[in-house]
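Re: weekly structure request thread

Next one in the queue (491 aa):
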Amino acid sequence: MISTESMQFLSAINSSLPLLATTGETADSSLVVAAVLLSLVVVYFASKLGGELSNRFGLPPVLGELVGGVVVGISVLHLLVFPETGADSSGSLIISFLKTTAGLNPDAAESVFVAQSEVISVLAELGVIILLFEIGLESNLKDLMAVGIQATIVAIVGVTVPFAAGTAGLMILFGIRAVPAIFAGAALTATSIGITSKVLSELGRLNSKEGQIILGAAVIDDVLGIIVLAVVASLAKDGAVDVSKVVYLIISASGFLLGAIALGNIFNKTFVAIVDKLKTRGELVIPAFIFAFVMAYIAAVIQLEAILGAFAAGLVLEETDKRKELQKQIVPIADMLVPIFFVTVGAKTDLSVLNPAVPTNREGLVMACFLILVAILGKLVTGFSVFGQPQINRLAIGVGMIPRGEVGLVFLGIGSSINILSKPLEAAIIMMVIITTFLAPPLLRFVFPEPTLVSGNSNELLLDASSGTSLAINSSNSESLEANPNSQEAN
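Done, posted below.
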């Protein structure tokens, strides 16, 4: 016999989880699992194919994952569609395939479609949490502090100028409401350190003065951008801008991040001691995820975004002796979950709103052009904020800050998940991310000329491809350098 208390408990579960209750009543749960599995096949195929093609053309793989999501999503193939895009079960080819091959009842198709979409969306959210945790692990605070005031100024300018210009322009020129405009402005603040560092490394400029300023500024820019994202996303949940709440969120976000970093000095030794005592599988990665998820939960509880907590957890564990080993163990987990986030963002983006043949779409196209212009100019000015460096390549610094890449997609994904962006504005943001990410690599190659050999009467000037520094070799004493390679001149 089932007691009255047990019945009440089961009733409470059903009332709190209506999705699962509906699915259980109208469709076989195995069909929901089948739909999710087919969705993951589509996601991984699109991410891998898109990433490989993008890599072949010298572009970041994440851009290919985004484009792959667009292809399989609501814009093209309708393989991976979601209810929030206005689609239903009849518009999903996966559900149609299940109807044909698995005998899915048309009456149960809608509930299976909704359940499948919810599961994929949850996996995508988990993917972005893992992504920010991984970014935190790769960010070295000591190296950032060593870069100096120049990188900090570049980062601050790179956040405030595009944010202010984008927000004000959307509100004044296009009549966008305050919260969506602020969110779009926040998306303009992002800088992809992964894309920039890869190109600088290929050009042999990673260790140049310009390269160090760009990298330092990009990481600081990410920290500031995540704080801005946490503030804006929290504001968006209420649908209004409250100045007192803005101040509270800025203080709480900054305090949370700084407090987490300060905690790292105490927690690091405890974490390593605990890990060393564990002997079963996952002795390192499981405690790390426990810490990351607890930090993400705390951030959510104090009205910040969970991703800020995950990022802070990564910064804390970056200081431990287990950092490199932990990074290696997280890579395959991130490889499984992070692509779901990027492909889902692309799949939910309806690029049909940018079709110029439809009169109502023309505003979205103009909006996209505006965001792209602000995104480029707002970062170019950062190079000219560098002072006290008369010989530095300011244009190269500005260009290095242009690509939004995966960081811009994080902003877009959060905005899509809380449904505050209109379809034209969402498509305009994703076009901005795509264009800036495509433009940055060739522009960096243009502003950083190839190493050249300059011949003169007494010396030849060579550029060291590995460090980006110049080496002056005097032709009159080149033989002595060869004879004594350990001399001070040779060094």
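The mean pLDDT is 77. The CA atoms of residues 50 and 64 lie 4 Å apart.
Next request, please.
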